[in-house]
Structures are given as structure tokens and as C-alpha cells.
Amino acid sequence: MGMKYYAKSKKKGLSDKERGKQIKEPEEEQKTLNSHQEDIVRCAEAFFEEYGRYFSEKEKRLVIEACCIHDWGKANLVFQAMINPELAGERKLNVKSISQIPHGHLSAVTLSQNEFFAMDDSFTKDDFGAFVTAVYHHHTRKDQEDSSELRTYGKKYYLEEISDYLGQTRTKLYCSNLNHLLFHNNGYSGKFLCDPAVWNEYLLIKGLLNKFDYTVSAGYESAELACDIREKRLKKEVESFLEGKDLRSAQQFMKEHTDDNLVVIAPTGSGKTEAALLWLDGEKGFYTLPLKVSSNAIYSRIKNGYGYEHAAILHSDSMAMYLKENPGSAWEKQEQAKLLANPVTVCTIDQLFTFVYRALGTEIFAATLKYSKLIIDEIQSYDPRSIATILYGLKTIQQMGGRYAIITATFPPVLKDFMEQYGLADRCLFADFTEDPDILIRHKVSIQYSEMYLEEIAKQGKTKKVLVICNTVSRAQEVYEKLRERNDSVWLLHSRFIRRDRNLLEQKIMEFSESDEAGIWVTTQIVEASLDIDFDILHTEMCTADSLLQRMGRCNRKGRRIPELSNIFVYDNKNGSGSIYEENLYQRSLEKLKKYEDILFSEKQKTKYMNEVYRTEAIRNTEYYRKIQDCMEKFSEIHPAEYTLSEAKVRDIKSITVIPDTIYEENQELFEEVEDRYLSKERKQEIRTKLQDLTMGINLRTCFGHPDGIDKAAIGSTDIHRTQFVYEFDCETLQGRGLLLGEKADSIFL
Fold first, then answer.
1. Which of 315, 337, 364, 701 could form a disulfide with 207 if both were Cys (CB 3.0 to 4.6 A apart)?
2. pLDDT value at position 28?
3. Minimum mean pLDDT range among 242-246, 417-421, 533-537, 545-549
4. What angle do CA 401, 407, 412 make, to 5 degrees?
5. 10 Å Cβ neighbour count for 616?
6. Facing residues of 491 across strands?
């Protein structure tokens, strides 16, 4: 090897003047290309030693070979001169004036088909297509060069260098390999047609290649932390927790079916969390929930309740959790969670199911789920687009060999029909435990065709725990304010509190639930499937059946008493009908509920009620059904170049991040510090996390109704916008209405 080839430029320490310190950070030694390649292969081989049982020998070999060749293209002279200025000077190359061809593209045309087939007798032409596509697209780059441009570039800047690097003469590039690519990233047209088996093989090769590459580039040796397959530490902790207790029916079932895909329908109080963790059986797992707050609760339960320190939390606000636990290791914990390295990760579906959109960079999620177990908690809580994303994603995971368990209190029959339609149901066991004799009857429903009886609610709140759920934030604020005139022990929880204060309120409501305290909490639907709370009485605006049953689960949750009088009061005041909830489903839910009024409402009857509302034939013409069907059909046709990584979002939530002026003025120095261009990435991330804690998300449709109250320009380099609207919250009493849209404060934008 005549020249020394490098994988990337070394990181240079900042000067004393730049850093404002006496000590200069040490320079990082520049890593050679050969060393980087060896590290990635070593990482892959160590991974297969632990997780090899989930892969065929051919799959392992394909991934290893991709790790070996994917960076060959970095040997090109322009790339080497770019990361090594001394070489640029020696060769008199002005790299800025040369249009560089991405190294992945060069790597993919360096290997011939015959060389590929010689690697392993089992390799086929289909394997070559998946393999060369994974190498070609292992970084997200536009491929706008044609074969002629590749050949010209290769002769001028690459063939001599790759021959030197490999120690074998290379006289040409195999540009015909481009004909075997599964897709191009240069625009798209028409439907994407690809054999699912070939596409899934591409997902596997590209996903694991990225996983090992990211791991090594981040400075880690192992792609997986604390493998629990042999010791089953988490399972033993759960079993120890349950020791001396008879396993509930759902728990016993999931423990006995650890190798199966499952849909388990079990009411609140069935021990679903423990059942799911027993089903993991020590294997790598992802526990997904609808909301971040519920993810935080399960994460804390696994880590603190069961003492399992290797659990990770992953969602858009997870850095805040790590900073609270241990600021010194928060950055590393977050990075390892993003690399999907932990044996158990608690997250929302938004972090995993982006691969359904076939965006470049999302393959790592599908590849990781191939050797993992996936838990989907409360699937009925999602909107139709998210449900379609989950079902299509489960289809891919099942085809690749991964396993899943859906655990839910209610399971609309229409979802089972979709599972049957897309080939999921025939490879899945369904189990319904709503008739479990250990589950007491907890609810009796009364329907009111009026607004809420505030005098009665205020009176009940003097001696009982009363939960009030409204369909909109504005209605919740209005009800809260009126109840405060009648009872001092009233609190409010909704989405228009800054994250810091919302966290305080969520902690308060859970503590209140466990205490002997009486009082009233007014909330929105954010408590439906997120918080483990238990109230004596529920007053709720009417909504669709799935949401209504979730809301009921917050009342008499532990079944301490069988109600003699109604403890669920449902108000048909039409708030949210047609806007929040599809009118057809709202009306069906109301009509079918009437037959269960003023009787003990058992779990079996709740299942019957849900089935009546969501019977496929009855709702086939609803927007709910059509949207699931349309999304499922679209997913099968999405072209890999259609969505970018940032556009591949599971939930179509269009919102703007805002900070009330009063909060901004108290924390202005943080906004100034985050603009310091010499800050370390760790410190910048820490500040951004602190800033996020002072903000809230506002739906863009809501903002359209108040265009003059939110600054159109973001603050500095952040995505945070100031708002003049009044923000009302008392940090001592934890009371207040939050952000009041339409009521402006005195301060003005600076």
C-alpha cells in the first residue's frame, strides 16, 4: 500500500481563544480506512455471536461482506484530499472545484457480480440486487451521475487508489451494477414494484450495516448492550415481584406463548405490563405506548420498580429523563438509545415505524426489529393513519422473522378484519380475558343530555376523588374556572402547559390518586391511556367508544368496590362531535351505549359494546375505515425516494413550539447561550433540552384562529416561537389555566 488511506478527518481541538479556557482539547488521532473497516467487521461478528440464532448463515454472510466493502469508495483521491489537506497540497488538488461522487456509489460498482457470487455458493442475483443497493445507498445521497461520469471519475481519481488500497489491480468499474439497484434516489415516478422478500433482505443488510457503522463511528465496540438472552434478568425480576401471587390468566398465557405473535385483550387490572415483560423472556424488546407520559411511567416502572438498570427510554423528550437521572451520563445514554443498543427500550411508535415510509435511513429500525420482540400497548388509542402504519409495519416485521404482541383493554373487530386482510391474523394467536373471574365489575353508567352539573361535581369533590374529562382544552379551562368558584381543591391538566409544569401536574395527579385526599381534576383526553390513576367518580363528555372505555379505566380502576349508584356520568353535549370525533362514530357510540345505562357494566359487556360500535360492515363507509384502508394501500406503493428521513412521520401532527413571553423573559440567558458556536455538542443538547422543558406544542390549525398572538419568526437558531398570550400557573399550588389563547399579556415582542 503506497498511500495511507483515512476513513474520516481528525477532530481538532479548539484554541484557547475560541474556547475561552487555558487548556486546549487534545486532537483525536485520524482513523485509517482499513482500521475503520476492521472495527465494523469486528462489531458485526461480535453481534452475530450473541444474536446469530435470529439469522440464516446467508444473511450473516451478506451483512459481513457489506461491512467489508461499503467504504471502499473512500479511497478515491478527492475524498482523501478533502480529509487530508496535506495530500491536497502534494497533489495540487482544489477539492472544492471537483464534483465528488459519493463513496457509497463508487463502492457499489467496484465489485463485480462474479466476485459477489464467489463469496458464497448460496448467493443469487436477487441477493446481489439487495446487496449492491444497500452498499450504494448506505448514506443518503442523490445519485445523479450516469455510467459515463462514473467511469471518467474512476479513471481520474479512483481506480489507481483502490488498486493500491486493496493490493490488487482494478482496471474498470462495473457500472452495469446500477441496473441491479432496487431504486434510485433521483426523483420518482409511478408505483414502486419490488419482491417483498428482496426488499426485506435489503432492509436487513442496509439496516445492520448502518447499525454497525454508526456504533463504531460513535466510538463504541458493541452494537448491543447487556444482552439478557441467557440470564433473563428482567424476567427474573418480574417473577420475583409476582412471587407468592397466582399469575393472572393473561400473565400465564403470555408466559406460555413466548415464541408466538399475540393479540391479548385484557381489562385494566389484569397485570398486562407484567404479562408483556414475561413474554419478552429475556430477548431484546421494544415496549411502545401511545404517549410520552405513559412511556415515561413504564420506563420508570421497569428501571426502578424492577431494578432493571439496562432499560432505555426513547422519544422526543427522553433527554430530559436522562438529565434528571444522571446529568453526567445523559448524553451517552441518549446516544445509545438512538442506536437501539439496549436490551429493553420503552418508546412511542414514532421512533420505530418510520421504515414503513421507505425513507433512506429508516432501515435500521426494521433490521433491529427482526431480532427483537415488539410490544404494542393499547393499539385502539391511535388515529387511523397510525393504526395503518402499525399494521403495515407488523406485516414487514412478521415477514422478516420478528415477533410482536398487541396488549389492549379493547380491540375493535375492524382491526382484526384488517389483520386478516393483510395476512397477519393467520400467524397470530388471539386471546380474550375480559371474562376473567378475578376482574370485578367496576362501573355503572348514567347518560346526561346536557352540560355538566357543576354544582353536583363541586359537592362530590368535597368528599371524593372526582375526574372530569372534556374533549377540548378551551372547555376544560372553562369548566375548571367555574368549579374553582365552588371548590378550592380543583386542578387542571391539558396540553397547553409548558412541559415543566405539565410534568409537575402529571406527578401531582398520580400522587393525588394514591392519597386519601378529596378533590377534583379537570382534564382532556391526554389521561385516557397515559396515566395510572384511580378516581371514585368520572364525569366525561361523550366521545367515541374506544376513548370512552379508556376514560372509564381511570375510575374505580382497582375495583375496590362494586358500584351501587352510577360512578360514570356521560354528557352528550356534542362538544367535539364532528370536529374531534367523527360524527358517525360518535353517534353510533352513543346509541349503542344506551342499552348499558343504569346497569352494572361488566368487562364482557364492554367488549360487546366495542364490537357493536366497530363492527366492520356497519362502519365500512366511515372516514375511520376508509383512512386505514387508503393508508395501507398507499404504503405498498411508496417509492423509497418519495419521503426524506425528516418527512417520514408516523403521526401527522402539524404543530408549532411556543414559549410564553413571561417564561422567555425569565430564561433569556439560556437562549443567548445556545447561540454560542463554540459550545460542545453535549452542552448544546443539554441547553436545548432545558429550553424544550419551557415550551409547549400548539396545533397549527389552532394557531390559524389566533394569527397575531404568536411570533412568526423563531428565536435565534431554535424552532421556538414567542407568544404574547397569557400563561397562568402557580408553581406552589400547581393551579392555573395554562396558556389562554386569545388573552394577550402586556409584554410585546422585542
1. 364
2. 60
3. 242-246
4. 105
5. 15
6. 521
Of 148, 2, 147, 136, the C-alpha closest to 77 is 2
Best CA proximity match to 546, nearest among 559, 568, 529, 571: 529
What are the φ and ψ backbone dihedral angles of 681, each rounded to 5 degrees? -65, -30
H-run or E-run covering 547? helix 545-552
- CA distances for 591 relative to 123, 453, 585, 587, angstroms: 60, 22, 10, 6
Give the pLDDT confidence score for residue 13 in this predicted structure: 43
pLDDT digit string, tens, across residues 523-552: 999 898 767 899 999 999 999 999 999 999
Please give the angle made by the CA atoms of 391, 395 and 399, to the nearest 5 degrees.
165
Neighbours of 291 (CB within 10 A): 18
φ/ψ region of 439 (left if φ > 0, alpha if ψ in -120 to 50, else beta) reads: beta
Residue type at position 502:
R
Q: What is the DSSP string of 355-391?
A: GGGT-TT-HHHHHHHHTSEEEEE-GGGS-HHHHHHHH
Rounded to whole angstroms, how far apart are CA atoms 45 and 339?
17
The reply to whether the predicted model has a pTM over 0.70 is yes
Rounded CA gap, 106 and 149, in Å?
Answer: 11
Closest CA to 199 of 629, 648, 636: 636
Residue 278 has pLDDT above 80, yes or no: yes
Please answer whether residues 543 and 551 qualify as being in contact, where contact means their C-beta atoms are separated by less than 8 angstroms: yes
pLDDT per position as a tens digit, 183-207? 999 876 667 889 999 999 999 999 9
The three-state secondary structure class of 465 is strand
- Residue 331 CB: number of other CB atoms within 10 A? 18
The C-alpha cell that represents 533 in the structure block: 390513576
Identity (one letter) of the amino acid at 340? L
Percentage of the chain beyond pLDDT 70 is: 95
| CB of 72 closer than 8 Å to CB of 132 | no
Cell numbers linked to 712: 412568526
What is the average pLDDT value for the chain, to the nearest integer? 92
Question: What gap in Å lies between CA 720 and CA 667, rounded to an integer?
Answer: 13
Structure-block grid coordinates of residue 352: 420505530
Q: Which residue has the cell 378529596?
A: 518
Cell readout for 197 is 422478500
Q: What is the mean pLDDT of residues 429-456?
A: 91
640: its cell numbers:
423509497
Distances (CA, A) of 599 to 90, 167, 543: 88, 83, 20
Q: How far apart are CA 219 and CA 235, in angstroms?
A: 31
User: What Å distances lie between residue 717 and 216, 308, 645, 714, CA to CA?
Assistant: 30, 38, 21, 7
Q: What is the per-residue pLDDT across 615-637, written as a single tens digit (0 to 9) for each?
A: 999 999 999 999 999 999 999 98
Residues 346 and 314 sit within 8 Å (Cβ to Cβ): yes
* Contact by Cβ (8 Å): 68, 41: yes
DSSP state of 350: G
What residues pair up with 26 in beta bridges, in sequence order?
Answer: none
Go through 704-739 and write b for each residue having 16 or more CB atoms within 10 A of its CB, e for each that does not.
eeeeebbbeeebeebebbbbbbbbbbeeeebbbbbb
Determine phi and psi for 201, rounding to 5 degrees.
-65, -40
Q: 145: closest CA among 99, 108, 188?
A: 99
